[in-house]
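This entry is set out below.
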Amino acid sequence: MKENNQYRTGRHCVFELHAHLVFITKYRGAVFTNEHLRSLESIFRSVCEDFETELVEFNGEADHVHLLVNFPPKVSVSKLVNSLKGVSSRRLKQLHPELIKPAYMKNALWSPSYYAGSVGGAPISVIRHYIEQQTRPL
């Protein structure tokens, strides 16, 4: 999507829907390195493409990630989140086996909860700047 044309079109609609998503790790464990975050960004972009959704911005820290997504009205945010978390957990553990936890921790990467906020009231540039300013782990 181009910055100067902020509207997307569907068959019968014109839309501009953005959501700020935040996922935290299970038990808020500090597990991500910069390499893990790079892999996650790639995985999230792939899942977003499958949903005809655009990952506008991504960043994170050792224990959580922020995503800014532009999505069409036909996409349910809860289904998108479910797919983003499920696919990323599975693929990230395939790419980085050190993230596989012992059986007693149930091998969960993400907390079952998440934050989803509509960013229609705030300029996208403000949300984008906020996500860009999140620090990455060492």
Observations:
- The chain has one domain: 8-132.
- Residues 8-132 form a domain with the Alpha-Beta Plaits fold (CATH 3.30.70.1290).
